[in-house]
Structure formats: structure tokens, C-alpha cells
Write a structure and sequence with these properties.
The chain is built from 2 helices and no strands. By secondary structure, it is mainly α.
Amino acid sequence: MRSLFLIVLLANAALLVFGQGFFGPPPSENGREPRQLSERNQHAIALGAPQSIIQRR
């Protein structure tokens, strides 16, 4: 019974490691291409001139 428990525990750990992608890309990422930086929400960020600490107060 103890050996069966260890086998099931090791199989569970192996599936976790495989599913999280420790040995390459995870299976859930198959067929997906990463988005390029230029495709992200560039309009969501507005940069202004830096302010000194004295001006902020």
C-alpha cells in the first residue's frame, strides 16, 4: 500500500512539473505566439516630464 501511494505521488508530481513547463513550454501554450512589444497597449501609458520632489509637494 505504501509503494502504491509513492507511485501515485510521483506520477502526480511528474504531471505537475510537465504541466507547468519546467521542461520546455507548457502544453497550454502550444499554438500560441507571444505578442510583440509593439502590439501591447502603447496608448495606455502617457509619459510626461520628470518632476523633482520639491515640485510634487
